[in-house]
Amino acid sequence: MIGNINRTLQVVEPFSLFSSGDITLFQAGSHYRLYEKFGAHPVEYEGAQGTYFAVWAPDAAFVAVMGDFNGWDHYSHTLFPRWDSSGIWEGFVPGVQPGFLYKYFIRSHNGEELEKGDPFAFYWEVRPKTAAIVHALDYEWDDKKWMSHRGQHNSLKSPYAVYEVHLASWRRPDPLNPEAVYSYQEIADMLVPYVKEMGFTHVELMPVMEHPFDGSWGYQLTGYFAATARHGTPQDLMEMIEAFHLAGIGVILDWVPSHFPGDAHGLFRFDGSHTYEYADMRKGYHPDWNSYIFNYGRNEVRSFLISNAIFWLDKFHADGLRVDAVASMIHLDYSRPRGAWEPNELGGNENLEAISFLKKLNETVYALFPDVQTIAEDSTAHFGVSRPTFMGGLGFGMKWMMGWMNDTLEYFKKDPIHRKWYQHDVTFSLVYAYGENYMLPFSHDEVVHGKSPLIYKMPGDEWQKFANLRLMYSYMYTHPGTKLLFMGDEFGQTSEWNYQGELDWHLLKFNPHKGLQDFVKDVNQLYTTTPALYEQQFDMAGFEWITVNDYDNCVLAYLRKGQEPEDTLLIVLNMTPVVREHYMVGIPGDGRWEEVLNSDAPRYYGSGVVNTGILRPVKQVYNGKDYTLTLRLPPLGATILKRI
């Protein structure tokens, strides 16, 4: 069945890609390129072409590789256990070429028999099929220019406006058929120019790793080293990422080191024992997601996870990793009632092993790829998530500002007549804004599970809903920190996100939605071209309150500052539908001002209350400032002015 092979070779030859140094690093939790050793690697041995297989199954009594090359026989291709007690089973199988299907047949010491997919497979069958595919990752990249200069694009002192995308449901060939999806190439042809036109600097892809259940949105993985075959081959994904790079757009990948599903072919009880997960289900089981938690205290698991992070940065040229569910990793009592968790050795609720792992992860990533970013999804007040490990932090580059997101949405949901009692909701974030390097997210989590799309969180009639949303985005883009918008938010999606459908693109026929899209395009342009909004986005020197106590009028005013005084912006927000004519704002110095963006402009479906021409302050002490500027404040609108 295999074809012409050298008859002097055995069915499985003893062969290894591992050195003794590899084993030492693997067992120390410090091997960062295990994907070059484990898995299925087409190689030549003794003049014969074939595939080397290696799998970690420390509690197995017997391991064989089976596939379409041997009729899925459980016993004909037995792998050899290494002599060094590493738990690795390996061997060279002549004649097995790229494209062949395979799984591992494992019998544990207690006699249990399992059929498992390869944790290190680069390519899998499309679900519901569950076999891995022998596949090489050769690709000739053409993004050298981006890679050599991406440090400046990914810098914390550069603009970072992220468009979060679920590839299958951004657009579909047939919106009524959840099985119909575009290929990576087809998506790239549509998505790359769209992201470029909208002015986003980065795209964040919800997990593109292989997963069995569409309804997990990719957050329950079985193929940690495989691009999902739903859209094509690993090389097709590489080509899509390359297309973004050629357009000057960075690519962030969602990455899930927090938990994995219990599917029979996946990581759970891989060799009949708790290989990858904690054996104590108080630590090893996730009650929210019916999934299992990695054993961060086991060195081989740490090597697996860190190698996986490095894999996507190395082989797929990712510009960053957004690390999912960090809060659940670092807290033993996350979503657990009293008695369902056990304190750590110090009596606290932190998972010390997970914290140690995350520090090691970030130290490794930034040592090997100093021009990328790691971004933590963390909803807690844990100290120093985005601070260096030598300062006691976890070492992430950025952290999602979940408190800001919750407070902002709660404020904007309120009828404007009541907002004066809740101004604290939108000013409190500045109390802690510089405690971390924050990213301001309106993510997919805010528009699912009955939470309603953003446009319907806004109060009032149709006009007011859109005005409120433009105002909220104005506040977001002028608040310190980087930005993230989920797909559809940029044009006022009117239905909750449905992973089986596609976005409501037909809405762009209507002026309110087209106006909102144009506004997001323009506010992205302002953010990415105005140093005051990004040069000091993580430095308190970049922000100054001007008006913070006008509760009755619900007006806020503040300055954003770059490193040069002439880059200063003045932002004034009117949180009510009442036009404020001749509104006085105290400013610290003389100079001429010009309105550079107004969320109420007619082209955005606004009412047209704008400030035209050159505006000059008068020398008059007001609100503690030496000069006073008089403005027209649009209803439920923002005016943004630049010193000229």
Describe the structure in your own words.
- It comes from Chitinophaga nivalis.
- It is an enzyme of class 2 (transferase).
- Monomer.
- Its EC number is 2.4.1.18.
- It catalyses: Transfers a segment of a (1->4)-alpha-D-glucan chain to a primary hydroxy group in a similar glucan chain.
- Helix 1 crosses helix 7, helix 4 packs parallel to helix 5 and helix 13 runs parallel beside helix 14.
- The protein has 644 residues and is of the alpha/beta class.
- The mean pLDDT is 95.
- The protein has an 8-stranded parallel barrel, surrounded by 5 helices. A 5-stranded antiparallel β-sheet has the order 21-22-23-28-25, with helices on one face. A 4-stranded antiparallel β-sheet has the order 1-2-5-4, with no helix packed on it.
List the helices and strands and how they pair.
Layout: H1 20-28, E1 39-45, E2 48-56, E3 60-67, E4 80-81, E5 88-94, E6 101-108, E7 113-116, E8 132-133, H2 144-153, E9 161-165, H3 167-170, H4 184-198, E10 202-205, E11 209-210, E12 223-227, H5 234-246, E13 250-255, H6 281-284, E14 285-286, E15 291-292, H7 299-315, E16 320-323, H8 326-330, H9 352-368, E17 373-376, E18 398-400, H10 402-413, H11 424-427, H12 429-432, E19 438-442, H13 462-478, E20 482-486, H14 511-529, E21 543-550, E22 555-560, E23 569-574, E24 580-587, E25 593-598, E26 618-622, E27 625-633, E28 637-643
Parallel strand pairs: 9-10, 9-20, 10-13, 13-16, 16-17, 17-18, 18-19, 19-20
Antiparallel strand pairs: 1-2, 2-5, 3-6, 4-5, 6-7, 6-8, 11-12, 14-15, 21-22, 22-23, 23-28, 24-27, 25-28, 26-27
